[in-house]
Fold:
Amino acid sequence: MSELLLGGVAASALAAEFGTPLYVYDELELQARSRAYLAGLESYPEASRAVYACKANATVAVIAAVAGEGLGADVASAGELAAALRAGAAPESVIVHGNNKSDADLSAAIEAGCGLVVVDHMGELDQVERLAVAASRVQPVLVRVTPGIDADTHQKIRTGHHGSKFGFAAADALDALDRAGSLLHVQPSGLHVHLGSQINQLGTYAKAVDWLVSFIEEHGLGELPVLDLGGGLGIAHAPGDIELEIQPSMEAICAHLTDALIAHGLPMPELVVEPGRSIAGPAGTTLYRVGSIKRAADGTVYAAVDGGMSDNPRPALYGARYTAILCDRPDEEGRTVYTIAGKHCESGDVLIERIELPELHPGDLLAVPATGAYNASMASTYNQLPRPAAVMVTDGHARLVQRRETVEGLLAREV
Ligand SMILES: Cc1ncc(COP(=O)(O)O)c(C=O)c1O
Structure:
């Protein structure tokens, strides 16, 4: 390969036209990954749906690409809801999350006609009832339960363990279902679990399914029409990382659930999954321009790029590992070990600890793949750095989908 192409467009042309740092999203990849979820779910004998977790990347064009394939939207704030609706998601396909939803979050969701609200604490049931009365609606809800499973992932993105800030402990989930059933404008529709994110072992899902099926049987909950297993499938960020394939993973989860329900003599609820990272992550690449290159006293060779922890906080937050590609010589063997640093005023602002790359020079263009999830959506403006622009690439064409933030825009908030 003579130079790196993204969606058929030269990375150098993208950087020249749209500047750096630049988020680049591959539309065909977003669509193919979305379809893989639907294909995997087809193996489930009852109704099923995949609902894209907008927190992974709430860029309207990204949500639109996914919703266009027939996925719903999972939102965790009124802001994500607004993005999902603007992207064309049907309100009834929207599932509303949050461990501390405000009245504004919930009333926006209820008034828009969102399909399901996932209730996360007891007080929320009365909140939904009050706001549903005001909107003259009966709101279907799921009760989020924490099964006490330690997912095989970083502790900061584990959510299904005892001690999680999310969901109800098992006994409280039963009380929540009872309470929901006693409210006139709340309709208890099922259970929800989300074990965590960047999960790489299907056995983690199997444990959750086993736990849920036993819980449903033990407490006579078989008539609840919906079972939502959340999201969490992991992706490869760097060479050597494991990546579970979407369709076979979904097929394995569906088979395990079907067998467990049959073995316990339970009816089959509608199955919902909420993927985020595994759809958006591999579809995104960030382009950076190299600036300063220097050797520290201990021999570390730093190449600093024009972004960093503001556009990708994951290495600093979770020690996430990424790789980088020199865009004009993607196939050239690396001879020098670099530490790719950002430009922020923090020593922890390092995107990649040690990577072998061809000799770098100021002005070189670097691509960091697998940055489509939890990068743009977690970006900050630390050091008053305007957030990057985003482009969608498809079949050799690029279109701007999110404007670069400006310093004037940042200052416009000041009063
Ligand atoms: C409730 C819920 N559903 C779905 C997701 C999406 O997870 P992932 O992006 O790992 O697929 C999350 C993310 O943390 C979540 O909290």
Summary: Residues 130 and 185 are 8 Å apart (CA to CA). The longest helix spans residues 246-263. The first strand starts at residue 5 and ends at 6. The chain has a mean pLDDT of 96.
